[in-house]
Write a structure and sequence with these properties.
The complex is a heterodimer. Chain A is α/β, with parallel strands linked by helices. Chain A has 15 helices and nine strands. Chain A is elongated, with a radius of gyration of 25 Å. Chain B is α/β, with parallel strands linked by helices. Chain B is about 50% helix and about 10% strand. Chain B is built from 16 helices and nine strands. A six-stranded mixed sheet of chain B has the order 6-5-4-7-8-9, with helices on both faces. Chain B is globular and about 75 Å long. Classes of the chains: A alpha/beta, B alpha/beta. Chains A and B meet through helix 2, helix 5, helix 6, helix 9 and strand 9 of A and helix 2, helix 3, strand 1, helix 9 and helix 13 of B.
């Protein structure tokens, strides 16, 4: 078992050793979340590695990963707990058959822990082997506001109150990561309980690092071209700029096509991997892609010339 | 369980760190960031976590605790660099600001509260002096208002006198917008539902001793979808948008999920400003926030900005859009068409409110109007009290044939 890192450098190293290239900002906020035992609220565009951080932490620290995918209408029954009604019904029938008359006792028997079906959030409060799990609450903005209220108790005190049973408290607080794509604003009351971080697109150097770590088979020259191309796209005026996930997908696609360097034809053929809106694809197709391509080839040549001299 | 480490069980911070962090938080609070005392304690804990090596580490540490929204980062960034580098410079800056405040003092009467106070006192004096005549005046007044009201209701906002406008504004503030509710995926207990609520069923049957099981049911919840308002404030319809703003103020204070934008040559989100209870204060805040009142229009460009920056954040969950504009685009309409198509794809229901509809012979001839028309679900006038009152109830019903945009194509 790996222990909680004790410094920002150690956190960065832990993430790096599990294939996550984090900037100093990300390492700091992750370190603080672990150290202060606070939930970490990550907001940012799709495909910049928000969900990934939870997976990497679970793996790096040797914890179980419990994932709660949010959707509209998610309620307490599917997120926190539910009673096993069928078993409870049978129990009532059995009690009747054996002539059990004490109503008080029967109520206690029926709403006992063995009839409780634990869902993700309740599971996250358990640490069977002494190691608290990593709880990933993914895409919180997809639920309606009502669900956020369920989370408040869990996030601030790491406990759940079940009216029939009482309060269940975590022996060891879980590591909580919450992600949001900001399709709506999450309430301040929830944010207040968390450490907040906006995950932006990485700069060219870090993105190249990420590509090298995640796709070690790709040639350095191709990776360099791809990263510069994507960076140029992001600087431009697109409806949805490609994320890091798209960069990695593109590298994979180009590898599958046995391309060793970018050329206008290949770019046009594979734009669908990178851009997900028809408007953006139309805008980029043809001369625009070629213009960017020429521009980045120029850049690479100048960079090589400066390095040589 | 273990709680987050508090500073009780730690040696007190040496030096001036605690005081400085507290002052820094106060600076942020002054600048409008919601930094509470709990965050200050957290920031202190974090700063003492013992792993800060560089200034950058310190920056991101405080950032993690004190910033809760992306929009606040810029303010934090500036405050951080000024505060933790040259504390004296901050003092100078603050003094500069105080200076401005004192210089601005003679303008005090602009303060809406003050105006109201003045009005309240003035009214009182007036009523004291006129106490004798009052009984007769009341009777006369009553008959007068009803007939006047009828005229005002149908009157074009632009042709109203100031007094009439004030009266209209009062009437507008009483309007409430009804929108059609949509079924959510969440349940509530109810009799009509076909779904059995097992939890309540079991609880009830236990209460009865388990002999009899009465089924408790639950039903779907219904809820109003979010509403997004885009209001044109360019010169050609600014008179109407001023009145419409009063309506929006009433809407903003009545509903929770509403976002309001004003646009002329650029787009401004005024939701927060309009949420103030006091209408004078709200309008004052809006005028301060908006830089392009009565200027030109660039509908295509501002819609583009909306689509790019806001659509994904505010149009989720079946949002309806109210677009108030005369549709007179100065520039090429290709962009406008394109952006309307995009808006159409992300909004559930689009209602176009056009003050030009006050003319009986209105025809959809202008290029901008023709560009918008194919993508809206409803097309309504917005030039009088009647049309606004109509709008207030119309959204709850299916589109009436009179307001079907197909009539205008």
């Amino acid at each position: 078992m790996t222990n909680i890192p004790t410094s920002i450098d150690a956190t960065a190293a832990l993430l790096k050793s599990n294939g996550y290239v984090a900037g100093r900002d990300m390492a700091t906020v992750v370190f603080l979340a672990l150290k202060m035992q606070r939930p970490l609220f990550l907001e940012g565009e799709a495909g910049v590695g928000k969900t990934e951080i939870a997976k990497v932490l679970a793996e790096g620290l040797g914890r179980k990963l419990i994932r709660l995918q949010c959707y509209e209408g998610l309620d307490i029954n599917s997120a926190v707990y539910e009673w096993n009604y069928a078993a409870q019904m049978i129990e009532i029938r059995l009690a009747e058959a054996s002539g059990e008359l004490d109503r008080q006792r029967m109520g206690q028997d029926i709403f006992a822990e063995r009839f409780l079906i634990k869902r993700a959030l309740l599971q996250a409060l358990e640490s069977p082997d002494g190691k608290a799990p990593v709880l990933l609450i993914d895409e919180l903005d997809r639920t309606d506001e009502a669900f956020e209220a369920y989370l408040l108790e869990i996030l601030s005190d790491y406990q759940v109150t079940i009216p029939e049973l009482g309060t269940i408290k975590a022996t060891e607080p879980p590591i909580v990561i919450i992600t949001s794509n900001r399709t709506r604003e999450v309430h301040d009351a929830l944010k207040r309980r968390c450490l907040y971080h906006w995950v932006g697109y990485p700069d060219a150097r870090r993105e190249l690092d990420i590509v090298k770590t995640k796709r070690p088979k790709a040639s350095l020259a191709l990776a360099n071209e791809v990263v510069r191309f994507v960076q140029a796209l992001r600087a431009g005026d697109l409806f949805k700029a490609p994320g890091v996930a798209e960069t990695l997908d593109w590298i994979t696609a180009l590898n599958e096509l046995d391309s060793v360097a970018l050329d206008p034809q290949t770019v046009n053929d594979t734009l669908g991997v990178l851009l997900k809106y028809q408007d953006d694809i139309v805008r980029m197709e043809g001369s625009e892609a070629k213009r960017i391509l020429d521009q980045i080839k120029d850049e690479i040549r100048t960079a090589a010339a400066t390095a040589a001299s | 369980m273990m709680l987050a480490p508090s500073n009780d069980n730690k040696p007190l911070p040496t030096g001036k760190l605690a005081a400085n962090i507290m002052h820094f938080s106060r600076v942020l609070r002054e600048a409008g960031l919601p930094v509470g005392p709990a965050s200050v304690l957290d920031a202190l804990d974090a700063a003492q976590s013992g792993s800060l090596e560089t200034r950058e580490d310190f920056y991101w540490t405080l950032h993690a605790i004190l910033v809760k929204r992306r929009d606040h980062k810029e303010v934090f960034d500036q405050a951080f660099h000024v505060f933790w580098k040259k504390p004296k410079m901050l003092g100078q800056l603050m003094q500069l600001m105080y200076h401005q405040i004192t210089r601005a003092a003679p303008d005090k009467p602009k303060d809406p509260g003050f105006r109201r106070l003045a009005e309240a006192m003035f009214d009182k004096l007036e009523s004291q002096s006129q106490r004798q005549e009052k009984p007769q005046a009341l009777e006369l007044d009553a008959t007068f208002t009803t007939s006047a009201d009828d005229i005002i209701r149908a009157k074009d906002f632009e042709q109203m006198t100031l007094a009439e406008q004030t009266q209209a504004k009062k009437a507008i503030s009483l309007l409430r917008l009804n929108t059609r509710e949509i079924r959510t995926r969440r349940f509530q207990s109810g009799r009509a539902g076909a779904n059995i609520d097992m939890r309540r069923t079991l609880k009830n049957s236990l209460r009865a001793g388990g002999d009899m099981i009465t089924l408790a049911t639950r039903e779907r919840q219904w809820r109003e979808p979010p509403l997004v308002v885009l209001c044109d404030i360019s010169g050609s319809c600014s008179n109407y948008s001023r009145m419409f703003l009063h309506f929006l103020h009433a809407v903003a204070n009545d509903k929770t999920r509403v976002t309001i934008f004003l646009f002329g040559t650029r787009l401004t989100n005024v939701t927060r400003e309009l949420k103030r209870r006091d209408i004078d204060e709200a309008v004052g805040k809006v005028s301060a926030a908006v830089k392009d009142w009565s200027g030109g229009t660039r509908i295509g460009l501002t819609l583009r900005e909306f689509n790019k920056k806001w659509a994904r954040r505010v149009l989720a969950q079946n949002a309806s859009v109210l677009l108030m504009s005369d549709g007179l685009e100065r520039e090429d309409v290709t962009q406008l068409t394109h952006e309307m198509q995009r808006l159409r794809r992300s909004a559930k229901h689009i209602v176009w409110l056009n003050p030009l509809l006050r003319f009986d012979g209105f025809q959809a001839k202008a290029a901008g109007v023709r560009a918008i028309m194919p993508y809206v679900d409803e097309f309504r006038p917005v030039h009088s009290l009647d049309s606004l009152a109509d709008l207030a109830t119309a959204l709850a019903r299916p589109t009436s044939p009179a307001h079907n945009p197909k009539n205008w194509r």
